[in-house]
């Protein structure tokens, strides 16, 4: 049976609490590591480990019996039969984190009865947490030119096609959660990814985006589904509803992406 709205709100607030606390752990770990001369990949690995350890401990105490799917933990088939699954990315944007930037995130989502029922995205560098219980839609006012959030380091080839086809302004930024959050916050109007991701990369941002009334789908327009046996979920579209049809049409016309599965 699906959760009631009140239950979903409670899980969203719980997810937000965990994401915020993990952000504090990550910021403190980075400061300590810098003082000890730790940097680069070692710093990223340290952050991943510290956040995973903290979140796993909190969930064991606060959500006993629930299954967990996390980027930084061994996956088990037991989650496929679980009533509820927490889908976690303890540190989304390890590269940005290790470089001392602010555009990285913590993802905490809750799946139940076949659906995402709650999610939270923390952007600790901005002391910000977005959650599916309290999020509001972005402004209805359309910009003079639609803006698309893209990777600052490795934008997929599809981005160039969409930029030219729809005359989009591209806005480079860090992690996937930050890019989806930019659409939720009205800083961008779309985020399209086709370069390979897993469920933990998008579950929490998608839960918040849906609560904000945004369009979310695969790049072929089919629904994003979670807690599948194979957590590989390589592509997604998150955008303002009025931009969904032209975006999906342009994607379908892209030579290398129209048949993407």
Automatic annotation (TrEMBL):
Q: Report the SUPFAM superfamilies cross-referenced here.
A: Carbohydrate phosphatase (SSF56655)
Please identify the protein, giving its name as recorded: 3'(2'),5-bisphosphonucleoside 3'(2')-phosphohydrolase
Which InterPro entries does the entry link to?
CysQ/Inositol_MonoPase, Inositol_monoP_metal-BS, Inositol_monophosphatase-like
Q: Which CDD domains match?
A: CysQ
Keywords assigned: Hydrolase, Magnesium, Metal-binding
Organism of this sequence: Demequina zhanjiangensis
Origin: domain of life: Bacteria
Q: Name one Pfam family in it.
A: Inositol_P
What GO MF annotations does this protein's record show?
3'(2'),5'-bisphosphate nucleotidase activity
